[in-house]
Amino acid sequence: MSIKVEAICQKERKNIMSNRMNKYKTVASITTELINLESILKLPKPTEAFMSDIHGEFNAFQHVVRNGSGNVKSKIRDCFQGELTNETLTHFAFLVYYPSEQLTEVTSSLSSQELHQWYLTNVQRLIRLLGYTASKYTRSKLRKAINPAFVYVTEELLYSDNRDQDKQAYYWAIIENLIELGQVDSWIKMTCATIQHLTVDHIHIVGDIYDRGPAPDKIVDVLIDRQSVDFQWGNHDILWLGGAAGSAICICNLIRICARYNNLTILEDAYGINLRHLARFAERYYQDNLAFRPKSNSSNLSVEEDEAKEITKIHQAISIIQFKLEGAVLKRRPEFNMEKRLLLDKISADRKYITLLGHNYTLSNTCFQLVDVKNPYALTDEEQAIIDKLVMAFTHSEKLQRHMKFLMSHGSMYLRYNNNLLIHGCVPTDEQGNFIGLILNGHEYVGPELFDFLEQNLRDSYSQTNRKDNLSMDLLWYMWAGPNSPLFGKQNMTTFERYFIADKATHNENPNPYYQLRHNEKFVRKLLGAFGLDPDTSHVVNGHTPVKKGTSPIMANKKMVVIDGGFSRPYQKVTGIGGYTLLDNSFGMQLVTHEPFISKVAAIRDLTDIVSTKRVVETEEKRRTVAETDMGREIQVQIKELKQRLQELKK
Ligand SMILES: O=P(O)(O)OC[C@H]1O[C@](O)(COP(=O)(O)O)[C@@H](O)[C@@H]1O
Ligand SMILES: [Mn+2]
């Protein structure tokens, strides 16, 4: 089995390690480093958080990230045992989550004397909490987590014991100076961010940041700021990566979804992609159509009637272009095995029926005025011009390119990390659990090799300058909607049927047998083994399929955890909750259930964490240390090398 693509974080770690190794050439320096590394191995394993299917729900996401999925409050409770009333504890926790908002509140509501006292109390508490959250890390790691402008002040406060009589005056003088020099607010904001970062050391996003919700761009901005992050791309993320790589089909699909969920502003305002031409064109050729009306989005802004009509027309225009472009790929790629998705040529000349597998279905909500009966997949000149402009805009949007570059550099099709296998969708199989995939040029890509192959093609199409309709580009769309795509995991994407055919039987997308098999421990063990992990100690973490109300997200004797709990609002009626975060820390694995997030204003007003329950997935018999992590294993290799070097020097 060849696993070609290792995640960026692992590569980065190795680079850092080997650069560091070159520094140790003397007995003294090697000895110091050996002591340092041996003691790092003994530290508790840092906390990882796993989230998936956030689908643009920035406010819910940032709330959970800021409160460390409830962990920040637990840390405060442990740090200040018995010292704070529940009310004070909650207020202090909200200062850590939302320092800017809390500072605005206190500066406007307290008298200057009260405010001074508030600063003295809270700076001191923050220092204690920072010290407590940092106790798991080396001093050097903590230093890197502190804003450079405040390293000196923070370290002086942290390491000078304010109970020591001699140091007391010094300690308080630093705080008084921070206040007097007008720096205390900045220091508080920085320290709260550091506490948040240290509480959850690493974030895994198991796919689907994009589509349906209003602010995926802001989620990416937060993650860029965190840096210690990885992504396993989801099918929706592929549309945006594909769009940035210049895939016209991906662009159509994502604009269609933005129109459907009333989110076109993401394109125009966040990414500076001008939709004027598309809007004017849609206005000329399309009318109102109930099936293409935008859904209300999560910010619950009701759309003005004129705007709703405009979006409805754009929605139809882009859908028709999408169906035409998809038809062209289906024809040139018989190896994708998707001929049954060729639908425009099955529409009757009077546009009233469609014939699918010998059945005639009535068409409703039709908008086929630009579909030529004789040549249904041909774009009109105007449609072609619009697509060309859109491709140009997507490939030249500075912010989109920056965001997608981050998703590329920190992302992969799957990830093996500290004994867990992270995959957004599935590993396609047949009914018997044999891996299936794509046959291209006589070679069948299945299992890990299918993932590696698709990833390589994504990277190729992303980096190539002459963007053509080549195989790599076509595979991007396959990753979104192909029957054996690990990211889609279903036989048919029935977008056309959902818009135009009332008979619900045609809407069935037929999930891959994997989704039944993943309940079975034997199958999951086989999967882990195939991806190079030890089935006895590892787990699979999946996203993509919302866990239905009354169904357990923990399957296969705890070997499989599905964490799509419905951050995406339209799916909360299916899941009955507001989302999950899986935490993996030195004590084991816990699944945190979140209540639906109403709004940031409501969360701050009602001081709610949106954490309802914590379910234990796995408890460790003895607290896990860095030695038992991937990083620990690399450190052990390094220790071995350093010891060898030391022996040679001593000879
Ligand atoms: O909920 P919508 O907007 O109708 O979209 C449904 C489509 O989304 C999909 O579920 C894919 O999106 P997910 O990855 O979020 O499941 C398709 O299978 C389906 O055709
Ligand atoms: Mn998905």
UniProtKB/TrEMBL annotation:
Q: What class of enzyme is it?
A: hydrolase
Cofactor(s) the protein requires to work: Mn(2+)
Q: Which reaction does it catalyse?
A: beta-D-fructose 1,6-bisphosphate + H2O = beta-D-fructose 6-phosphate + phosphate
Q: InterPro entries attached here?
A: FBPtase_class3 (IPR009164), Metallo-depent_PP-like (IPR029052)
Q: Which domain of life is it from?
A: Bacteria
EC no.? 3.1.3.11
Q: Which UniProt keywords apply?
A: Carbohydrate metabolism, Hydrolase, Manganese
Question: In the record, what terms sit under GO molecular function?
Answer: fructose 1,6-bisphosphate 1-phosphatase activity
SUPFAM superfamilies listed in its UniProt record: Metallo-dependent phosphatases (SSF56300)
Question: Which pathway does this polypeptide act in?
Answer: Carbohydrate biosynthesis; gluconeogenesis
Q: Which Pfam families match?
A: FBPase_2 (PF06874)
According to its UniProt entry, one GO biological process term is:
gluconeogenesis
The family database entries (HAMAP family) matched by this protein are listed as: FBPase_class3 (MF_01854)
In Swiss-Prot or TrEMBL terms, this protein is called: Fructose-1,6-bisphosphatase class 3
Q: Which organism is it from?
A: Lactiplantibacillus fabifermentans DSM 21115
